[in-house]
Design a protein that fits this description.
Helix content: 55-70%
Number of helices: 34
Number of strands: 6
Strand order of the largest sheet: 1-6
Largest sheet: 2 strands, antiparallel
Radius of gyration: 31 Å
Length: about 675
């Protein structure tokens, strides 16, 4: 019995290779046009499509090459006879497709470790003829392989290391030291040229649209990229960066970090390092010239022996597609940040400065959004009838975890990172950095997870609130403060809208609204990370899963008991709870639920004066986020620019630039010391 009708089999036998070639060209076009969008938009659908196209592109090209090989060795395929030259020509295009576009060499960091596999793939394709297109394909594939090699963690770590330096000659230095001691000459530290250049550029930065910021960001990226592979930075790097960031405003600071992550993305996931050099420009010229030459040759040569009109049309499509994609790549090459680094635009023509520079500097380099989710809605969403039905169906095939993940993604939302939130984060981290002059104080500042914030409040408030930090693990405190923040934000907004706070003047109401929005944004963002992005929070989770499931169970029981169906009813009922005694004293410590502890904390916070309350809550949430950022693994942070960027990753790098980090060392403090006579 035939599985498919004979007509369908015959149709597929004729069109299988042609379909694969057209699909391969389409996937290349999609990757050229849209692969860079993943660093600017946090869309799960977009990332999935890019991921699918990235995987299919190599697979389809390899399948098509296999079909060509099979057709050339088969006697029963009459369509393959007489057009071996054309098939070889197509095969060269497939090698070109395997080289991939400039805008994506790897989808994830792990892909960079497979550069050896791509090297073998390159060597195995060398038998294919058609010299011109074959040369372009070889160049593209070699570029991709070399880019993957440079971005692999071992090689990337090697690029961070300075050149071998045996230091000054010992015998000469000893003699100089003896002479200097006799002449009372004092040594001084001679800073490296890079440090001096970074400081010089930092002093020239005027605003967030200045080209100097891009150049400074590149130097800072070169100095701090060792963080990705776990290298320690020198105290000199810390002081240089800290001096710059203490003087600039929040707009310049966030723009600097945005540029740095753009460089990180391009180095790790594109051909930027390979293409943006003299040899890369020469190879790009050779590639385009070869494709144009092949197109002209194919246009002028007789085509009677090249097969059917369909096959000739397909060949022209491949040629035109290759030319268009190469031209697009060259345009992107011109309008790239690296172009401004290669040429001093101050010395260029006015039109070039106006159009190219402005276009490059205005490009969006990350999504600028944070995802939001809160626990009350999380519990209510899971109790919806449709969700319960999906969970029941998924239970039969052991897929409840998948349904839960999809449900959370569906019910979560996103919001832009507003300028007031950026300003608050930068100013308070700068204040924290100002209190941490040396490495020991910086390490102490990084280990704080709410203590510093509470100490900034009054002594009475500190005594009342310190239990919410000191008596719980970090993840439990997060959950406790998250629920309390949601409750307070709802009640305050409700009272503000109904005019129940006549004491607050208009200015205070505006300030409180801004502070409330900051607290709510950070609180819901952290909860989203805990539920849907656990890898970023894993180093600090502790007993999060136990506390989370127990708190969810108690919240659901409370909502079911009082027949609560929406968040408004939930907040009002939680506010009515009489919580004079701590839950642990009544229920014991077996359950790790913090549901009613949050009601107690919310009541204590609401009893504080408005200005002190919101100031304390803002600082506590900033410390929570900063603690998570600095403890998240560096390689996890390095993955985020390819996924639209994360505010947590911005805070991580901002803290390091402000001298707040755990990967600094004072062992190189005397590096570069020279004996210089001071007169």
């Amino acid at each position: 019995m035939e599985l498919f009708p004979k007509k369908i089999e015959n149709f597929w036998e004729i069109w299988d290779l042609r379909t694969c070639i057209l699909l391969s060209l389409t996937l290349q076009a999609f990757l050229v046009m849209f692969s860079s969008f993943r660093r600017r938009f946090k869309s799960s659908l977009l990332i999935f499509l890019i991921w699918a196209a990235y995987l299919l592109a190599d697979w389809i090209a390899a399948v098509a090459i296999g079909l060509i090989t099979q057709s050339q060795g088969s006697n029963c395929n009459s369509n393959a006879k007489g057009n071996e030259d054309l098939l070889a020509f197509w095969a060269s295009f497939l090698l070109l497709h395997l080289g991939g576009p400039d805008s994506i060499t790897s989808f994830a960091l792990e892909d960079n470790e497979f550069w050896i596999r791509h090297l073998f793939g390159l060597l195995l394709q060398l038998w294919l003829p058609t010299i011109l297109v074959f040369a372009v394909g070889t160049i593209k594939y070699a570029e991709r392989t070399y880019a993957l090699y440079l971005a692999s963690l071992d090689r990337f770590g090697a690029t961070v290391l300075p050149k071998p330096d045996p230091g000054p000659d010992y015998e000469e230095s000893a003699a100089l030291y003896s002479a200097a001691a006799a002449m009372a000459v004092m040594p001084r530290v001679d800073q490296s040229d890079d440090a001096e250049l970074i400081l010089e550029l930092g002093q020239k930065v005027q605003n967030a649209e200045d080209i100097k910021i891009l150049q400074l960001a590149h130097l800072l990226f070169q100095a701090f990229k060792g963080l990705i592979v776990g290298f320690f930075l020198s105290n000199r790097d810390r002081k240089t960066s800290r001096e710059i960031f203490m003087k600039i405003d929040h707009k310049c600071a966030f723009k600097l970090i945005e540029y740095e992550f753009s460089f990180m993305y391009q180095v790790l996931h594109t051909k930027a390092v390979v293409v943006h050099r003299r040899a890369g420009y020469i190879l790009r010229f050779i590639s385009l010239s070869s494709i144009l030459g092949a197109s002209i040759f194919f246009l002028l040569v007789g085509k009677k022996s090249f097969g059917t009109e369909t096959e000739i049309a397909l060949t022209f499509t491949l040629l035109v597609g290759a030319i268009v994609l190469d031209v697009i790549s060259i345009i992107k090459l011109i309008f790239s940040e690296w172009t401004l680094l290669d040429a001093q635009m101050e010395n260029q023509y006015e039109w070039r400065k106006k159009y190219i520079t402005e276009t490059i500097l205005k490009k969006k380099r990350w999504s600028g959004k944070v995802f939001q989710y809160d626990m009350i809605n999380y519990c209510l969403d899971q109790e919806r009838q449709f969700t319960q039905f999906l969970y029941k169906i998924a239970g039969y095939v052991r897929a409840t975890a998948i349904v839960e993940q999809l449900s959370n993604m569906w019910f979560s939302s996103s919001k832009p990172v507003e300028d007031p939130l950026k300003k608050f984060i930068f100013e308070k981290l700068k204040e924290k950095s100002n209190e941490a002059e040396n490495l020991k104080e910086a390490l102490d500042a990084c280990s704080q997870r709410g203590d510093w914030a509470l100490l900034k409040s009054s002594y009475t408030s500190y005594i009342k609130l310190k239990w919410s930090i000191g008596e719980f693990q970090y993840a439990e405190s997060l959950l406790l403060w998250h629920l309390a923040t949601d409750l307070i934000c709802y009640k305050e907004e409700d009272e503000s809208n109904s005019g129940q706070n006549p004491r607050d003047d208009e200015a205070n109401r505006v300030d409180y609204k801004r502070q409330r929005e900051n607290c709510k944004a950070l609180s819901d963002y952290v909860f989203y990370l805990l539920v849907l992005h656990t890898t970023m929070m894993s180093p600090v989770l502790g007993n999060w899963h136990k506390a989370f499931q127990d708190t969810c169970a108690e919240a659901k029981r409370f909502f079911e008991k009082h027949k609560i169906t929406n968040d408004k009813e939930a907040f009002n009922k939680m506010d009515d709870v009489k919580t004079k005694v701590r839950p642990a004293a009544v229920k014991g410590t077996k359950s790790k639920s913090v549901f009613f502890d949050a009601c107690i904390l919310a009541r204590q916070l609401r009893n504080m004066e408005g200005e002190e309350r919101w100031k304390t809550m803002e600082l506590v949430w900033l410390e929570f986020v900063a603690y998570a950022a600095i403890n998240c693994k560096a390689n996890i942070h390095a993955q985020q620019p390819s996924r639209g960027g994360e505010l947590l990753t911005f805070i991580w790098l901002l803290m390091y630039h402000l001298g707040l980090g755990t990967q600094f060392s004072d062992q190189e403090e005397l590096a570069g010391t020279k004996m210089v006579a001071i007169k």
